[in-house]
Design goal:
The protein is built from seven helices and no strands. The chain is mainly α. The protein is elongated.
Length: 208
Amino acid sequence: MSQEPLADIHGDIAYMKSLAAEGRDAPVLVGPILVAAALWFGAATVGQWLIALGKIPLSGWGVMWMWVGAGIGFAALLYVLIRRIDAKSGSKTKDNTAIGAAWSACGYTIFGLWLVLMAFALSTGNWSVMALMPAIVMIAYGAAWLIAGQVARRGWMMLTGLVSFAGAAALGWFAFTHWTYAIYLVLLVLVALAPGLHLMKLAARSRG
């Protein structure tokens, strides 16, 4: 019997083992995206807070374009970050693919619900519904974190999801007060910036 087929089989087995090991050890790679979201929308939140306090003379469509600008800036950075992540080892593992899909769904859900609220506000002239947008964002974040936690088998991710849901309730309670901006800013740190930095640290450590 030729030794070449046996060598091929052993090579295939070794390759499959390496893929399994990569999938098991690959870090979660969405950290930079979470940090970018926290920074862009955190900056817009600070601006909104200052507007509400009368520190910045901006209102109406100017406020909306401030948020649209933050969204465009994030989308441009997201385009770059996704390509960098796709080029990294472990980006195509089952876990990273599923977690990436969860966060993509989160983003599309936020954008879709923003369109719904905008359509309602434009058709009725009732812009007060936009005060619920921060709570909607936190609900979407909570769902994405719970999925990510189950996929990656990380309890702290699921806990972050629960914090997001609790934060959404708090934002609903304080929706028409100045406190909503402070609460939203703190939540962006707790459920986006800090976890994102932690994931980036873990990814860098795994490469080292």
